[in-house]
Design brief:
The protein is an all-alpha fold and 115 residues long. It has 3 helices and no strands.
């Protein structure tokens, strides 16, 4: 196997692993959304609505991870076919990061107010 073909194969496999990582993150966020939005209110005497809102927020984050991961996989595949590089979209990373930080802060607030 020539070196260039092997490098392309490794890059394609790395893209596949990254795609699966986006899915793992999405599935994890879905599990957190069920825990926060459905299980916590059922297992405690806490006010229900803040945790339902958090559950919905984590479900939205899950959808963002899965949708963007699928989009990103296609973009990278096309770039590789052209022999180019496809940088990660900075605005998407910032938006998802800000959304995740917001959910984290809201989770802390909900826990502190309900303890």
């Amino acid at each position: 196997m020539d070196e260039e073909r092997d490098a392309t194969r490794r890059t394609l496999l790395a893209n596949e692993r990254t795609f699966l990582a986006w899915w793992r993150g999405g599935l994890t966020a879905l599990a957190v959304s069920l825990g926060a939005g459905a299980l916590v209110p059922e297992l405690t005497t806490a006010t229900r609505w803040p945790f339902v809102v958090l559950g919905i927020g984590f479900a939205v984050l899950a959808i963002m991870f899965i949708a963007y991961g699928s989009h990103r996989h296609r973009v990278v595949e096309r770039a590789l076919a052209r022999g180019e590089f496809a940088p990660l979209e900075r605005r998407i990373v910032l938006a998802m990061g800000a959304f995740g930080i917001t959910l984290g802060l809201l989770t802390i607030l909900a826990v502190l107010l309900e303890v």
